[in-house]
Specification:
Layout (H helix, E strand, L loop, with lengths): L9 H16 L4 H14 L7 H10 L1 H12 L8 E3 L10 E3 L5 H12 L4 E5 L8 E4 H17 L7 E5 L4 H13 L2 E4 L6 H11 L3 E5 L2 E3 L2 E3 L1 H9 L7 E5 L12 E3 L12 E4 L6 H13 L3 E2 L13 H9 L3 E4 L1 H10 L2 H4 L8 E5 L5 H11 L6 E4 L35 E4 L5 E2 L4 E7 L14 H8 L7 E9 L5 E6 L3 E4 L2 E4 H9 L4 E11 L3 E10 L7 H15 L8 E4 L13 H8 L16 H13 L1
Parallel strand pairs: 5-6, 5-7, 7-10, 10-11, 12-13, 12-14, 14-15, 15-16, 25-26
Antiparallel strand pairs: 1-2, 3-4, 8-9, 17-18, 17-19, 19-20, 20-21, 22-23, 24-25
This protein binds adenosine-5'-monophosphate-propyl ester.
Pfam family, one: AMP-binding
Keywords: ATP-binding, Ligase, Nucleotide-binding
Organism: Astatotilapia calliptera (Eastern happy)
């Protein structure tokens, strides 16, 4: 029923050798040549050629044959001294005595050494056409992480871990992880009942079980975690159950259960979590202080700025502090993109695993740069949407999921307990996909705000009055055909040009795709004919020398082509910088007042990072008119 798979056991050595040999002897031609090529010099088999002769030799001189195979097909940490000591009459079976090897090293490490990019697993998932590939490098990483996780939770050599999972890469990695740390694994078919599972757990005396929340087979969902819960009633030896997520549906976790991932950033024990937000901002509260500390994480406190003393500051810090998760704002990414790739490439970023973005829509160019340059194309970028009022991340991709598709610039999928809905202008819920509306939440969740200090009525009026029965976020969102969410910006930032409603973020995204542009901000202004006109502020990348009139024409052309002619800016003002809050958000309210020439109404500027930026903007605006 179960296969002991300890890293140094003789049993493992012999069983692995048998499997390996069997597998190549079953294929013809090429493999036979391989056998012939490696055997003669090692086992005095010169002159042996052809399958029949080889087979004859494997029986007549089996010790030499198996010794040659074992030496040439496997990596031994300690070579064996005796090939075999077997006596069938007494049931004594001993192979490769004195030898030590690790099965997972043989399956993974040696291939990663020579060809890390070779595909090791092709996962043909239940959902037809959604297959996924894992390279040897990726499988090794997954295996090592799991091995470390098991070790940290006290699993040691000789223990037996029960794996109750569907056929998936995580199950393979779990098996290899057990082998790696010298634990035996007891893989139980995921179709077995709670009783059958319990019997096998008791038989193996497992204290650890690995499972998934739900399985998916033939289009049907099976409640694997619930089956484990039932089995636990008659398995007193089990101390811990690791639970991975195969589907999005949360499951009830007990004190015995351990989630196998943190969900957005794939944080694992021992990682260094680098959120570069200021603690005066909600991101600093939730993802520098409370979140990381509550989870026993190591959290970085970043006191400086992204360009002090130079634009390599973040990546220099990543190298020195060995940061694994980096979480920052699109505004900083756009700023750094301006200075060029060399500031990133100077530093070793190999520790990075996940890159996060928060606070604003991240435009396509910034997303691509973050992913390709900062993350070397290997780190998932998680565009996380949330607000001060929501307390924590509400919509975000989950790279650790098997369904880990990530679309640039999309917050993607609601997090646990979050039930987003889109509303039309009449306050009706939009049920179809491929649609846009006001983003509301249909259900409460524990992290959400409870009131506004000393002004509960304002709380009600702002968040619950616009769409009775729903929490109103104030943001607009688009839900794609696949059901993924993309935040289109504050609803106040939607402008109406000649009856066409358009999010300013959409225009900014196109403008930012121009290679000369570092960032932009688009606002509406009162237009006597169109109702509202489009006014764009554009900051160029460092060292760009162009004729502003030429560039304006180019940008207008891009917007007309990619969105529509009506969206093309009536005014383009080139600026050295944009007015921003200290948390990096562009102060669009200020820009709107400037273009409306309402300088009296600029309002409270105390949160501005650099008030001089407003003066520059005012002067530039006056020059343009
Ligand atoms: O408009 C959304 C935008 O930032 C607003 C919340 O700002 P604040 O309360 O300061 O919290 C910032 C940190 C969470 C949202 O209403 N926003 C936040 N994240 C994103 C975003 N817009 C687009 N994409 C995001 N990922």
């Amino acid at each position: 029923m179960w296969l002991p798979c300890g890293c140094t056991s003789k049993y493992v050595a012999s069983s692995f050798a048998r499997r390996t040999l069997a597998s190549y002897l079953h294929v013809s031609g090429r493999s036979r040549c391989n056998v012939a090529a490696f055997m003669p010099e090692a086992a005095g088999l010169e002159g042996v050629s052809g399958r029949a002769a080889l087979r004859e030799l494997s029986v007549s001189n089996s010790e030499s044959f198996w010794a040659a195979v074992a030496r040439h097909r496997l990596c031994w940490s300690t070579p064996f001294h005796t090939v075999q000591d077997c006596d069938l009459s007494r049931g004594k079976i001993k192979w490769f005595e004195g030898g030590k090897l690790n099965v997972s090293v043989n399956c993974l490490d040696r291939h990663v050494h020579t060809c890390p990019e070779r595909v090791a697993l092709i996962w043909e998932r239940d959902e037809r056409g959604s297959e996924m590939k894992y390279t040897y490098g990726e499988l090794l990483e997954m295996t090592c992480r799991l091995g470390n996780l098991l070790r940290r939770h006290g699993v040691k050599r000789g223990d037996c871990v029960t794996i109750y999972m569907p056929t998936c890469p995580l199950a393979v990695a779990s098996m290899l992880a057990c082998a790696r740390i010298g634990a035996a694994h007891n893989v139980v078919f995921a179709g077995f009942s709670a009783d059958a599972l319990a019997e096998r757990i008791r038989d193996a005396q497992s204290s650890t079980v690995i499972t998934v929340n739900q399985g998916v087979r033939g289009g049907k969902v099976t409640e694997l975690k619930k089956t484990v819960d039932t089995a636990m009633q008659s398995c007193p030896t089990v101390k811990q159950v690791f639970v991975a997520m195969r589907t999005d549906n949360p499951v009830t976790m007990t004190a015995r259960d351990i989630a196998m991932e943190e969900y957005v950033f794939s944080y694992h024990d021992g990682d260094v979590f680098g959120c570069v937000a200021d603690i005066g901002w909600i991101t600093g509260h939730s993802y520098v202080v409370y979140g990381p500390l509550a989870n026993g994480a190591t959290t970085v406190l970043f006191e400086s700025t992204p360009i002090y003393p130079d634009p390599g500051r973040y990546w220099d810090m990543v190298e020195r502090l060995k940061i694994n998760q980096f979480y920052g704002a699109p505004t900083a990414i756009r700023l750094l993109l301006k200075y060029g790739d060399q500031w990133v490439n100077k530093y070793d970023r190999s520790t990075l695993k996940t890159l996060g973005s928060v606070g604003e829509p991240i435009n396509t160019e910034a997303w691509e740069w973050y992913h390709r340059v900062v993350g070397d194309g290997r780190c998932p970028v998680v565009d996380t949407w949330w607000q001060t009022e929501t307390g924590g991340i509400c919509i975000a991709p989950r790279p650790s999921d098997p369904d880990a598709e990530i679309v640039p610039g999309m917050a993607m999928r609601p997090f646990f307990g979050i039930n987003p809905v889109l509303m039309d202008t009449e306050g009706e819920v939009l049920t179809s996909n491929n649609t846009s509306g006001a983003l509301c939440m249909a259900q409460p969740w524990p992290g959400m705000a409870r009131t506004i200090h000393n002004n509960h009525q304002r709380f009600i009026d702002t968040y619950f009055q616009p769409y009775p029965g729903y929490f109103f976020t104030g943001d607009g969102a688009y839900r794609s055909e696949e059901g993924y969410y993309q935040i289109t910006g504050r609803l106040d930032d939607v402008i109406n040009v000649s009856g066409h409603r358009i999010g300013t973020a959409e225009i900014e995204d196109v403008v930012n795709q121009c290679p000369a542009v570092a960032e932009s901000a688009v606002v509406g202004y009162t237009h006597s004919i169109k109702g509202q006109g489009v006014y764009a502020f554009v900051v160029l990348k460092k060292g760009i020398d162009v004729q502003e009139a030429d560039l304006s024409r180019q940008l207008n052309g891009m917007v007309s082509e990619k969105i529509a002619k009506y969206a093309s800016p009536d005014f383009i003002q080139f600026a050295k910088r944009l007015p921003k809050t200290r948390s990096g958000k562009i102060m669009r309210r200020v820009l709107r007042k400037v273009v409306e020439s309402d300088l009296e109404g600029l309002g409270d500027l105390s949160t501005l990072d650099d008030p001089a930026a407003v003066q520059e903007i005012i002067q530039g605006h006056e020059k343009l008119l």
